[in-house]
């Protein structure tokens, strides 16, 4: 029997970007001691009080069908957090709860793109973006950001790509680069969206991880609230990656239709997960800062280590739990460098090419192991690059 072209074509006929990660995991399964700096998984687990609340509410019986749009308490908590962070008035009716940020990304493209519509995204990009767009039966079109611009997308490049497009997906703080879009970048994005009548899908799951500069949500820009859908999640801000609780924020009429989509797809998020998420959001920004603190600290460690050598370059990282390292001085692609590093030193990093052509000659490092081990691994990466460069 023949499967659908939609599912067969999710990766566009190429790799899904996870080859190095899968190789490292197989080595670990075979008993090899691998230092894993690949995925954005906290080295701490979900905090005990959040798990205790999850347990308490499950024992009390919130294990049946939960409210499909999200519980009133969680939608109110997400709305309050969003309004406090952005200054944009946000009500329960602007929020739908989803099974994590990835489901929100898919739902957003289903909501704004018809089959065959062109959906833009910025390269470098999180590895699932093009497949998510294809899964929604839209046509992905990348807009290349440049390393020499610190991967800030240029307004002229966005404008040139926007003809005939329906949506634009952006991500700041950015995975994989750690870049935070500047005010001028956001102004250019807003102008292009307005001129080309694009929906803007803003992936803001790293909004609690800001080290330098300011996180700007484009929904707060003049004229953008009615054409912006914001993706959020408990995963990064509260170390709740496995709980799979996220959301979409947008205009009330769009959210009403997205609630209908939830009815016909995931049928909501488990009630005890939503209750725990409401409790976690109630812990406030101080708790989010505590979860983010290790990455801020490790970024400072990395800056010190990298400043002491001149082979590996660091893309200016303003946020998120990643560093993008420029290894072009070695003469290798990111794929080849990462593969040799894994084979030689059993350190796993993600090749830049996993995140698009714009990041070729780079590797992404996740700052997700304890400080001393992270510093040791980064020093080894630098020494390895220096040997290759010679």
From TrEMBL:
Keywords: Aminotransferase, Pyridoxal phosphate, Transferase. Gene3D superfamilies: Aspartate Aminotransferase, domain 1, Type I PLP-dependent aspartate aminotransferase-like (Major domain). Residues 33-378 form the Aminotransferase class I/classII large domain. Its EC number is 2.6.1.1. GO terms for biological process: amino acid metabolic process. GO terms for molecular function: L-aspartate:2-oxoglutarate aminotransferase activity; pyridoxal phosphate binding. It catalyses: L-aspartate + 2-oxoglutarate = oxaloacetate + L-glutamate. It is an enzyme of class 2 (transferase). InterPro entries: Aminotransferase_I/II_large, AspAT/PAT-like, PyrdxlP-dep_Trfase, PyrdxlP-dep_Trfase_major, PyrdxlP-dep_Trfase_small. It holds the Pfam family Aminotran_1_2. Its cofactor is pyridoxal 5'-phosphate. CDD domains: AAT_like (cd00609). Belongs to the class-I pyridoxal-phosphate-dependent aminotransferase family. This is aspartate transaminase. It comes from Aliishimia ponticola.
């Amino acid at each position: 029997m023949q499967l659908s072209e939609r599912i067969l074509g999710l990766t566009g006929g190429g790799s899904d970007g996870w080859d190095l990660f899968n190789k490292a995991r197989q080595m670990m399964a075979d008993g090899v001691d691998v230092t894993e700096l690949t995925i954005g998984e906290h080295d701490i687990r979900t905090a005990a009080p959040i798990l205790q609340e999850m347990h308490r509410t499950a024992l009390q019986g919130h294990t049946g069908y939960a409210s499909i749009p999200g519980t009133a308490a969680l939608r109110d908590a997400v709305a309050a957090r969003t309004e406090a962070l952005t200054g944009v008035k946000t009500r329960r009716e602007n929020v739908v709860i989803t099974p994590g940020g990835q489901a929100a990304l898919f739902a957003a493209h289903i909501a704004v793109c018809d089959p065959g519509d062109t959906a833009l995204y910025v390269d470098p990009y999180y590895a699932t973006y093009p497949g998510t767009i294809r899964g929604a039966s839209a046509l992905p079109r990348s807009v290349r950001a440049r390393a020499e611009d610190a991967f800030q997308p240029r307004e002229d490049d966005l404008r040139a790509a926007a003809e005939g497009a329906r949506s634009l997906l952006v991500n700041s703080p950015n995975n994989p680069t750690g870049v935070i879009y500047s005010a001028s970048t956001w102004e250019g994005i807003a102008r292009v969206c307005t001129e080309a009548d694009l929906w803007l899908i803003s992936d803001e799951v790293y909004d609690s991880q800001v080290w330098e500069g300011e996180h700007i949500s484009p929904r707060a820009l003049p004229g953008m609230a009615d054409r912006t859908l914001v993706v959020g999640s408990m995963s990064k801000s509260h170390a709740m990656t496995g709980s799979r609780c996220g959301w979409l924020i947008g205009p009330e009429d769009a959210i009403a239709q997205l609630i209908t989509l939830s009815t016909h797809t995931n049928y909501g998020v488990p009630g005890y997960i939503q209750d725990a998420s409401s409790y976690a959001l109630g812990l406030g920004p101080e708790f989010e800062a505590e979860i983010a603190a290790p990455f801020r600290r490790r970024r400072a460690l990395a800056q010190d280590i990298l400043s002491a050598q001149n082979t590996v370059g660091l893309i200016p990282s303003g946020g998120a739990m990643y560093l993008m390292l420029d290894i072009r001085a070695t003469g290798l692609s990111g794929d080849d460098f990462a593969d040799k590093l894994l084979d030689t030193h059993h350190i796993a990093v993600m090749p830049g090419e996993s995140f698009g052509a714009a990041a070729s000659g780079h590797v992404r490092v996740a700052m997700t192991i304890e400080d001393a081990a992270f510093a040791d691994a980064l020093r080894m990466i630098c020494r390895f690059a220096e040997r290759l460069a010679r």
